[in-house]
Specification:
By secondary structure, the chain is an alpha+beta fold. It folds into two domains: 2-63, no CATH class; 66-156, Sandwich (Immunoglobulin-like). Helices cover 35% and strands 35% of the residues. The chain has two helices and seven strands; from the N terminus they run ααβββββββ. It has helices at residues 2-21, 29-63, and strands spanning 74-76, 80-86, 95-100, 103-116, 119-132, 143-147, 150-156. The strands form two sheets. A four-stranded antiparallel beta sheet has the order 1-2-7-6, with no helix packed on it. It is elongated and about 100 Å long. It starts with a helix and ends with a strand. The relative contact order is 0.12.
């Protein structure tokens, strides 16, 4: 029994010494503590940044709650069809709405010009989508409006 315990202790000592010699096992606790503290500091910075981001998003949501309401983009109701386009903060007055050849077309041309000390910047984006008007819709009664951050097209059924 004593021989078994002794051989176990010797084996553990030899294994630890071998691992330490090859750098696979370190007995320098101070280095490990310093490394852990550095990781803790790094994670605390990440947590602080996430808290700031959450605060910013909560403020933005409280100022403009209509931008964060989620609605279905298409609804087939008893008396009408509803199509919605998420504006994502774009100005609704830049939208072009047109009914032609049994199609509803919605387009948006967004231009942005900016002059600064560093030069002149121009950005242009264009968005367009079209929907076929179903046969059971009264085309003369198709309406459109802006609801929060959605452009809504209502097509009443016959």
């Amino acid at each position: 029994m004593k021989r078994l315990i002794f051989s176990s202790v010797v084996t553990a000592f030899i294994t630890t010494s071998s691992l330490q010699a090859f750098g696979l096992f370190s007995l320098d606790v101070n280095k490990e503590i310093d490394r852990n503290n550095a990781l803790i500091k790094q994670y605390e910075e990440y947590i602080s940044n996430l808290k700031q981001e959450n605060k910013y998003m909560a403020e933005k949501k409280s100022k403009h709650p209509e931008l964060f309401v989620k609605k279905p983009l298409f609804e087939d109701l008893k008396d009408k069809y509803i199509y919605r386009i998420k504006l994502n903060g774009a100005k609704a007055d830049a939208l072009n709405f047109m009914i032609k050849d049994d199609m509803v077309t919605i387009g948006m041309n967004m231009k942005q010009e900016e002059k600064s000390d560093y030069g002149y910047f121009y950005n242009s984006r264009y968005f367009s989508t079209s929907y076929t008007i179903p046969e059971n819709v009264v085309q003369e009664k198709i309406t459109h409006k802006v609801e929060g951050d959605y452009f809504t097209v209502e097509m009443p059924k016959k």
